[in-house]
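Researcher: I'm preparing a figure for a lab meeting and need a structural model of a single chain. I don't have an experimental structure, so a prediction will have to do for now. The sequence is pasted below. Please return the structure as tokens so I can convert it later.
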Amino acid sequence: MTQQRVAELSARARTGRVVVFDTETTGLRSWDQICQIAAVEYVAGERARSICLYLCPTCEMNPFAEAIHGISMDFLALHGDDPCAAMARFFDFLGEDALLVAHNSRFDLRMLDQECREFGIARPPVVIDVCDTVALARFMRPGLSSYKLERLISEFGIPGRNSHDALDDTIACANLFFHLLK
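Model: Understood. Here is the structure written out token by token.
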């Protein structure tokens, strides 16, 4: 991260399209899958629309993951979508012109790639600019004891909560992103 990069992000946030997203998963292993994905779109700094999808995984839920996010296999059996259909809706929402923002984006992007490989989903051949709010926070506020989302929103008095619900976490991440760019 550089000052020039922060200036670019700030300009995109003020005038362009930003999509903040988060995933919840069945666990952290290489065979785990996405069970919830949410995104919120901002256009010229104003919230425009959101999407929140539950996916029916084909693997089992790790009990530790379920204890963190509270999403059970029974819930997903009732409310979850086919992973291919859900990912198509997510990619359609994402579009081609967004600055994609996530907290610890490496994990969420890895899970997106993994989901696409697992289900033979063609990820759109679009190069989208990505901002990781962990890296942004480390650059803008060096020396903090923790860069976890929950800690940062508390530290800065930012509205939102890190509940491990993908939509809640997306909103908290967006609030952090815009706060850091002020």
